[in-house]
Every structure is written in structure tokens, then in C-alpha cells.
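Give me C-alpha cells for this 97-residue protein.
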Amino acid sequence: MSGRVMNNTSRTDWHRVDALTDEQIDTADIPSLSEEFFAKAKWRMPEQPRMVAVPIDPETLGWFQEQGEAAQEEMAVALRIYAEAHKAHATRKPKSA
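Here you go.
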């Protein structure tokens, strides 16, 4: 690392952007969607979450609960991120019970 401090602060005037109407937004560089696009499109509805019981050590559960009222949702998101990150390693065989 070069030792330079990175500044990721946005210089966008988000209040001005939020105030734009649909008519004020320039979409000229966005191509139109063709009939072929819609012919290939598939309607996908998200699956309903399943309720499961998973043993969690008290320290980990406590940490999630300290984050606020959405502890269960945040645990589900953390598991989803973990699963997505490890799909690249799917060549490994699952452990047998």
C-alpha cells in the first residue's frame, strides 16, 4: 500500500438527485428493451424463508441481539453471504454425517 489515505466520500449532490422528476432524468444512453428480451424473460418470485432451529453459541447470539431488533434477519443475511462466498468452493464434497 502506498500509505495514501483513500477518500471515498461521494461528491454527488444526492438531495438534488432525489429531487429530479422522471422527465428530468436523461436516459438517452440506455438502450430500449427489445421484444426478444421480453420473450426470453422469466418471472421469478422469491422463495419464502423457511423456519429452522439452529444451535448458536450464546456469545454469537448475544452479539447479533446487541445489533438491534433485526437480529434474526441479520443472522439470515450473514448465512446467505457466507453461502454465496463459499459456492466457488463447491468442488469439495460435503462432510458425511
